[in-house]
Amino acid sequence: MCSSNNKVKEIYFENAKFLPEITALLNEGHTVTLRLRGQSMRPFLEDGRDKALIAKATYIKKGDAVLAEISKGVYVLHRIIRLDGDNVTLRGDGNRNNEYCKREDVKGFVIGFYRKGREKIDKTNEPKWLIYSFVWTRLYPIRRYLLAFYRRIWLKLFPCKLPV
Amino acid sequence: MRTKKGFKLRDICGEKIIVAEGLENIDFCNIISMNESSAYLWKQVEGKEFTVEQLAELLTDEYEVDKDTALRDCKALTAQWLKAQIIEKE
User: Fold this and answer.
1) Which residues of chain A does B31 touch, with a Cβ-Cβ cutoff of 8 Å?
2) Could you give the 3-state DSSP secondary structure of residue B1?
3) What is the model's pLDDT at position A89?
4) Window 37-56 of A, Cβ < 8 Å to B
5) Among A51, A132, A151, B83, which residue carries the largest CB count within 10 Å?
6) Which residues share a beta bridge with A76?
7) Contact (CB, 8 A) for A66 and A60
8) Separation CA A55–CA A47 (nearest Å)
9) Which segment of A90-99, A148-157, B19-28, B38-47 scores lowest on mean pLDDT?
């Protein structure tokens, strides 16, 4: 579509180097839009397909999707499932294991997601995300079966379209 | 022409990218990155008025390149910058 000679290419940054820079930008007051990697926030979010709009984490609460450094250089974009004073427990929607960090390790707060190549954002304070969150987190006891169904059947019937 | 106000060159993981200053969103799904020589040129003219001829001169000062090639490259470069809307005419 674009006939200019401005070349479009994919650049992959290493999380351990890139995300500290992102943290610095967030602290300067910028918001950032990042392409998501990995399958740990299934079924709402898909690897390489969806994007997140992230701001500096100032006030966090249970249920929020956040960008956190769970150990030196290891960053995740997962959901807060427990907040106990300074201690934060995280779990990816597509995971069954927990991760732990401190409040200060929560670097970014997800304002919303751009899904399936849409221009319109699904904000995390809007009904769609809130209802999904309410239902999905309560289905945790049968999550392994739901994820298996999603992976083996749903994705076969409705494969993800990655952006070109 | 001149570089647009607020656009600064930043180094993110060795990648030279143009970022709008202020509280704006930085969309890493759609960034403008520059190679070494165009980043050099940008730094020289950031926040200033410039002409293609001046750019070409800066290029020949820094790199082993003849005047004609430099002029041609700088014309192409400013066309790209205009298209990317990081500089403006007059």
Assistant:
1) 11
2) coil
3) 98
4) 51, 53
5) A51
6) A68
7) yes
8) 21
9) B19-28
Contacts of B29 in chain A (CB under 8 A): 33-35, 51
For chain A, counts of helices (H) and of strands (E) = 4, 8
What number of C-beta contacts closer than 8 Å exist between A and B? 48
Mean residue pLDDT of chain A comes to 92
pLDDT at A161 over 90: no
Quick: pLDDT tens for B47-85: 899 999 999 999 999 999 999 999 999 999 999 999 988
* pLDDT (0 to 100) of residue A2: 39
Place of tokens 């003849």: B66
% of chain B with per-residue pLDDT over 90 = 59
CB of B84 within 8 Å of a chain A CB? The answer is yes
User: Tokens 């999380």 belong to which residue?
Assistant: A15
If pLDDT is split at 50, 70 and 90, which confidence band does B23 have?
A: low
The answer to whether the CB atoms of B83 and A4 lie below 8 A apart is yes
d(CA B6, CA B8): 6
User: Distance, in angstroms, between A68 CA and closest chain B CA?
Assistant: 18
Interchain pair B13, A14: CB under 8 A: yes
Asked if the C-beta of A14 comes within 8 angstroms of chain B's C-beta atoms, the answer is: yes
ipTM of this model?
A: 0.81
pLDDT higher at A2 or A120? A120
DSSP for residue A141: G
Which stretches of A3-49 are DSSP H helices? 15-27
AA identity, residue B80: Q
**Phi, psi dihedral angles at B19 (to 5 degrees):** -130, 135
